[in-house]
From TrEMBL:
InterPro entries per record: DUF1579 (IPR011473)
Protein name, entry field: DUF1579 domain-containing protein
Domain of life: Bacteria
Pfam family membership, one: DUF1579
Amino acid sequence: MKTAEVLKEHSFLERMVGQWAVNAPDMTGQKPWEETVRSLQGIWFVAEGSGEMTDGKQATTILTLGYDPSKGKYVGSWIGSMMDYMWTYEGEVEPSGNVLSLYTRGPAFDGSGLADYREQIIFLDEDVRTFTSSTREPDGTWKQFMEARYTRKG
C-alpha cells in the first residue's frame, strides 16, 4: 500500500482546522455550540462539535473528511449522539474554491426510507463558514432545511 501524500485538494480541508463557535438556531436553539477541527497529518480532518439541543439535552457530533485520489472525490462521515445513523459522504469542491458539496443518503423526514441529501461547507472568508443541509425534491432541485454558521474563535 502506498503512503498517503498531502495533495492540493487537502488545502480546502486545512482551512477548517481550529476552534469555532457554532450558531444553528434551527437545530440548537439560541445557545451556540463549539467545534474543534484537527488535522491528521494533513490527510484526514476530524471535527468534533458539542452543545445543547433545542430539547435541552447535550449532544456531540463527529465529522471526518479527507480526499480520496482514487475516486477523485472528497469522502467522509458524520455521527451524532442524537441519532443512530452514520452518514457517509462523497463530494467535490466547486471551482470558486470556497464550497465543498457533499452528497449522502439517509433517513427521510417522513419515515418512508432513505432520501438524498446535499451538505455544503461554504467559506465566506477565512474566519466564517456555513454548513447547510438540503434534501432532494421530486423535481431534482435541492431544498435547504438547515444552516449553521461557524465563526473562528481567537
